[in-house]
């Protein structure tokens, strides 16, 4: 019967998110090398600017060095193996007088030593993949070296994935940091209308970025979250939005989006210190599961004197009805997924009706997002929805144009001509993830 390949378990693992677990998987590969070859130590080194750094080490021994240890490349076997001065398979260092020049040969001591260069897909030398024991071993053969080389190839795949992830993260971090420093973000206002009177009652602030014609703002916020700059970018949007409040006429309100993470960070509370609690609404946007609703509720309570609280995307997010009650909101915003085709979908109509009844029980106003047709508007009015927004009323407008809209000084068609020139949409509908 054919013996299974020692690397088979790694080849059959799912590849999704392998970059995230690259370090763990390289460690497991080293453990497998030790087990299969019967050696005491296995490690990966990286060559960097004339230095050799241990990045991964697997051993049951108490070693004098571990991950992070650095020394000049000339002081170890790895560099010289990679450049052909030592063979990849050394059964006994005594066979090669050159090994006596390295302190590690006697200090460890080094016995049997197998080492292959680690090369990336472009052929560049990353470092080395090594397995060794403290005693010579004449039984080690080229076949064993071939096994080591197979494991090294697999480790290089994970390492390269990690390098690509790190390079991407570095580039994203640089781009987002520059954008924040330069405040290269524009705020648009999307009108919110009373469904009873048809008149505008307020606006929701929406962030737009320099590449708004190519992709939506959700990409920027997702990438900022990915590199640990989510709160910083979101606070730029919040500060930029608050700066537009003077352009919202008296008698109208302005809504600003904030994630639970930003709310709980305390940064939002500081930004709202000088704000008017009657004219400002903070929309809690849940794009990730909230770990502590009690902590979020406490943070919202602290900012409630400065702003009313709305729960965004009700009907599609992570929060259940009990959690909505725990947060004590003033406004519920029905997600556009409930609005879409509600005039022809009985299930969506029933869900929206239930949310209206729920809002009455807890004393909340309710806003329907994403109204795009007269039929959707009619159903929402029949259900008793208080307010609505969406392309039926207006797309997001530049701040001054939105001010004119709220004052009744601009016609719908005229406003749309302006917004199409200022902020061309990367997608056909209002289904872009909102942040401001």
UniProtKB/TrEMBL annotation:
Molecular functions (GO terms): cyclic-guanylate-specific phosphodiesterase activity
Residue span(s) of domain EAL: 169-410
CDD domains attached to this UniProt entry: EAL (cd01948)
InterPro entries, per the entry: Cyclic-di-GMP_PDE-like, EAL_dom, EAL_sf, GAF, GAF-like_dom_sf
Transmembrane regions: none
SMART domains listed in its UniProt record: EAL, GAF
Name of the protein in its database record: EAL domain-containing protein
